[in-house]
TrEMBL record:
Keyword Metal-binding in annotation: no
Listed name of the protein: DNA repair protein RecN
The RecF/RecN/SMC N-terminal domain, residue ranges: 1-506
The species this protein was found in: Flavobacterium chungnamense
Gene: recN
CDD domains registered for this protein in UniProt: ABC_RecN (cd03241)
Length: 550
């Protein structure tokens, strides 16, 4: 329930602060006194969008703050999921800055309007004549029946299953589209893969092939060079090896005379050993190298194949070709994998369809049982509200399609008068009848679910005094287990309130202001008398006002 409301710099309100209690409260005031302003300020707290026209003084910010007692609303999960501090007495504040920007806070934590609107759905339900048309909406009609049918747990389970079912259906569609695409490319991908596989590519192979090709292609020149090198090394008179041996023998004579000479001797000896090893390797290579036209041709063929693949796939390395080969392999294999995945998803979809059908049928059965209970209660309430012949015919049609709240389609038929045919509620019910039906619906729902604070905004417009009295009794009875407000012009309803607030205008410093005050017992008598007789209060009006209050 809302426990207090403070408003600063909003429309005609300069500064206002009011406290509320539980039970049934009424708000009265002349047309244009500011009742709509009050609702507008409350709407901002509940997450409606704002603009600079809301500011009374365009130089200062507007602040609207409401305190709510939410201990019995089971809202801790909402606060946890939105990372907010939970308090039994939760404070919502809305600020509109002169720049036009708006800020919202829940327990001093900044929030966006979506979060604020979501929370407000659990806090206050505002109903005006215009909103009675919502009764014609299928979603509202289902909500009414499901409250009576205690269906919300089943629908919650159904919604969870339906979300996963839709995800699987979407996944199945994507997989099938991918399979179609892959199948179109399958033959070409298979050809490309087989071409790469037949090439038997290996990482680093290109450098080795190019090196072998150079050796095989220049075998005569290499052989000639090796032979010449061996000749220069081994010539008996001028060969490098012979000359190194002579230098070694010469240096050996003085190596023992100093460390410096000995080091030179050792270095030359090492050089001789290394050169001797080079000579042996030159000799070995010279003996093993020979012309092999067949090997040269095979090497050239492999190189040309790799170069062709480079050009075809627009790459520069064998490693890149191997990556493409792996990708093609995955694409070719993915057909079988995709087909297997599609079968698996189809099986899961069947399982979810079975579960959804079980839940939807349970919801349907509960609704069927609830319909006579709801129609009887509606008829009873409406009879007390001056519609003794009102009848409802609520039809449910179980379909094959999975909707958001089950598989039912609903038709709300209504007949206001005895002997008249049933017709669609939105077509045959008048505005006054819709107002009374809405009140009856809310009264019934208050018996089956924990409704938030409800505000009836002139829902009694166009009804007679006797019917207004019955409507007031219904709202008063509703207030035994919830907080109820009624904005009214009728004294019969105003007199039933536990608390009576009056909205009125005053002029200060040539400025018009709207104010709200809680009336005392004597002030209530005067207010109701004025509602009965106008600005000139008669003695009979005072007596009548006291009778209504008593």
């Amino acid at each position: 329930m809302i426990t207090s409301l403070s408003i600063e710099n909003f429309a005609l309100i300069e500064k206002l602060s009011v406290k509320f209690t539980d039970g049934f409260s009424v708000i009265t005031g002349e047309t244009g006194a500011g009742k709509s302003i009050l609702l507008g300020a409350l709407g901002l707290v509940l997450g409606k969008r704002a603009d600079l026209t809301s500011l009374k003084n365009k130089e200062e910010k507007c602040i609207i703050e409401a305190h709510f007692q939410i201990k019995n609303y089971n809202l801790k999960s909402f606060f946890v999921s939105n990372d907010l501090d939970y308090e039994d007495e939760t404070i919502i504040r809305r600020e509109i800055l002169p720049s036009g920007k708006s800020r919202a806070f829940i327990n001093d934590t900044p929030v966006n309007l979506n979060e604020l609107q979501e929370l407000s759905n659990y806090l206050i339900d505002i109903h005006s004549q215009h909103q009675t048309q919502e009764l014609s909406d299928d979603a509202v009609q289902f909500q009414i029946i499901d409250s009576v049918a205690s269906n919300f747990d089943f629908i919650s389970q159904y919604s969870i299953q339906l979300k996963e079912y839709k995800r699987l259906k979407s996944d199945l569609k994507s997989k099938k589209e991918l399979l179609t695409s892959v199948l179109k490319e399958q033959d070409y991908n298979t050809f490309l893969l087989e071409e790469l596989l037949s090439a038997q590519l290996k990482s680093g192979e290109l450098e080795e092939l190019e090196s072998n090709f150079e050796k095989l292609n220049n075998v005569e020149f290499i052989k000639e060079t090796l032979v010449k090198s061996l000749a220069l090394a081994n010539d008996e008179q001028f060969g490098v090896l012979q000359n190194l041996k002579e230098v070694k023998a010469t240096l050996q004579k003085i190596a023992g005379l100093s460390t410096e000479y000995n080091l030179l001797f050792e270095r030359l000896n090492s050089t001789l050993i290394e050169f001797d090893d080079i000579e042996k390797e030159l000799n070995q290579l010279s003996e093993t190298i020979f012309s092999d036209p067949e090997a040269l041709d095979l090497t050239n063929q492999k190189l040309q194949l790799i170069y062709t693949l480079f050009k075809k796939h627009q790459v520069n390395t064998v490693d890149e070709l191997l990556i493409i080969q792996n990708e093609l392999d995955n694409k070719v294999v993915s057909v079988t994998t995709l087909e297997s995945e599609i079968v698996e998803i189809e099986n899961q979809i069947i399982q979810f369809e079975n579960q959804l059908n079980i839940l939807a049928n349970q919801v349907h059965d509960n609704r069927k049982k609830a319909i006579p209970v709801l129609t009887d209660k509606l008829a009873s309430f409406l009879s007390n509200l001056g519609m003794p012949s009102a009848r409802f015919n609520i039809q449910l049609d179980l379909k094959e399609e999975f909707y958001n709240n089950g598989k039912d389609e609903i038709i709300f038929l209504f007949s206001a008068n005895k002997g008249s045919d049933f017709g669609l509620l939105k077509k045959v019910a008048s505005g006054g009848e819709m107002s009374r039906i809405m009140l009856a619906v809310k009264a019934i729902l208050s018996q089956f679910s924990n409704l938030p604070t409800i505000i009836f905004d002139e829902i009694d417009t166009g009804v007679s005094g006797e019917i207004a009295h019955k409507m007031a009794e219904i709202m008063k009875n509703m207030s035994s287990n919830m907080q109820v407000f009624a904005i009214t012009h009728l004294p019969q309803i105003a007199s039933k309130g536990k608390d009576h607030f009056k909205v009125f205008k005053v002029i200060k410093d040539n400025q018009t202001h709207s104010e709200l005050k809680l009336l005392s017992d004597d002030e209530r008598i005067i207010e109701i008398a004025q509602m009965l007789s106008g600005s000139v209060i008669s003695d009979s009006a005072l007596i009548h006002a006291k009778e209504l209050l008593n």
